Amino acid sequence: MIYADRSTGVIVTGATGNQGKFHIPFMNAYARQVGGKGIVAGVTPGKGGQEVSGVPVYNSIREALREHDAGAAVVFVPAGAAMDSVMECAYAGIGLIVTITEQIPVHDTMKAIEYARLQGSAVIGPNCPGLLSPGECKLGIIPAQLATRGNVGVVSRSGTLTYEVIHELTRAGIGQSTVVGIGGDPVIGQTFTDVLGQFEGDPETKAVVLIGEVGGSLEEEGAASTDLPLVAYVAGVTAPPEKRMGHAGAIIEGGEGDARSKIRRLDGMGIAVAERPGEIPDLIRGYL
């Protein structure tokens, strides 16, 4: 596994909001199932002393860390303050900050991710489903029941496609080492290159599925950065040019960033590219 395991204590920021209250029980149910620490504390300014599903809530990260050992945080703070929460986590020394919140202003994201980098913290997201290491830990909203332990890493810009692909792999009897949803915003923390670098150092990961979308060139840059066996899928073949494409946050323009050009480049690198998610298990099996 990469980034976190069952021994990692986790703090949820925005714990008393609707999303925090909804997802904390699921994350901790999985932690109990696998014998992990799970969510040890929540943080919401002004709500210290409350509990969410048995998890104590504090007014600040520093306050929570005085009482609990935690190496990761999951951010459910609303968009206007989410990046302040990321910077608070980084300032307090939290090494992994998984940011689920969407619709965060790009300038806020740029500032917070750079600050976190300078503090030595890794940010996954924003606008992402988080991280799941089957049998180890669940940080975010990826449905754990779709996954099973194995040797295939998954890194994806799309939440729902992540779920579909891990379900297809599991149905085919192919387990996953770690699943990372990096998010689809124009500016994100951990990129394909970063996550693939983590997978390269993981002895359990033998091959990786890379799930891309229209916009930018992160998929090609990631594929060029690694020697790991890769199978890719790029969504958006039918997407119209010159349009801003939803949560991918990019404009397809001049033959750059569209799905077909990404597929051509990946194919030119010798990487197997699936036409449909259902083809991925057969393609990845050849590397195992």
Explain this structure to me?
β8 and β9 (137-140) form a beta hairpin. The model has no long low-confidence stretch (mean pLDDT 93). The protein has two domains: 9-124, Rossmann fold (3-Layer(aba) Sandwich), CATH 3.40.50; 142-285, Rossmann fold (3-Layer(aba) Sandwich). The radius of gyration is 18 Å and the shape is globular. It has helices spanning 18-34, 61-67, 79-91, 106-118, 159-171, 192-200, 218-224, 259-268, 280-285, and strands at residues 9-13, 38-43, 51-52, 55-58, 72-75, 96-99, 122-124, 130-133, 137-140, 149-156, 176-181, 207-212, 230-234, 272-273. Strands 3-4-2-1-5-6-7 form a seven-stranded mixed beta sheet, with helices on both faces. The protein has a seven-stranded mixed beta sheet with strand order 9-8-11-10-12-13-14, with helices on both faces. With 288 residues, the chain is an alpha/beta fold. It has nine helices and 14 strands. The relative contact order is 0.12. The two termini are 17 Å apart. It is 33% helix and 22% strand.
